[in-house]
């Protein structure tokens, strides 16, 4: 599914999600005696939490065992719902603790990861996620332009909807007889050439 279709469908699904949360009592945070705190999480949620902290899987162990496979895959939460503004900004922002608690104030209280999340919320501290994708400072990559061009997030980030732990996906290709790895210059140029986008130096270096 493309970013464009995700953005379009988001307008329809987000109100439904908000309405569903309202039915659970959106205005109250989790407390030991609240009905929301006693909602039992699914076996899939417990398994996803376990896999998201499994050292045997590729990717670093994050402060909270957040599974993209569960959220983006099983529950089909759209990328732009959490990574708000990516279609308007050069940067793809990380969701705030408030965004996470918008849902998890109502359920997941029996999950260790959600308990850690709530601790960050109570202490008013940001979550120090370990960055996965990083480009050199001299490369100027604009997310909003690529979203507007209709690229799927998976084009660069890999099949995140299948990942319990997000990690760099190896994608070796050959450009003019030379190997290029995903997120390296040759890989980007190969994509631009294939999609008839500019390969002028000032497109990425300015």
Characterize the structure shown.
The radius of gyration is 19 Å and the shape is elongated. Strands 1-2 form a two-stranded antiparallel ribbon. A hairpin with a 2-residue loop joins strand 1 and strand 2. It has helices spanning 3-24, 43-52, 68-74, 79-82, 97-104, 112-122, 143-148, 154-157, 185-194, 201-204, and strands at residues 173-175, 178-180. The chain contains ten helices and two strands, in the order H-H-H-H-H-H-H-H-E-E-H-H.
Please sum up the structure shown.
Helix content is 42%, strand content 3%. With 206 residues, the protein is mainly alpha-helical.
Going by helix content, strand content and strand pairing, the class is: mainly alpha
Low-confidence stretches: 1-33
Count of runs of 4 or more consecutive helical residues: 10
By DSSP, the count of extended strands is 2
Biggest pleated sheet:
2 strands, antiparallel
Strand order of the largest sheet: 1-2
Q: Domains counted in the coordinates: how many?
A: 2
Helices and strands in order:
Elements: H1 3-24, H2 43-52, H3 68-74, H4 79-82, H5 97-104, H6 112-122, H7 143-148, H8 154-157, E1 173-175, E2 178-180, H9 185-194, H10 201-204
Helix pairs in contact: 5-6
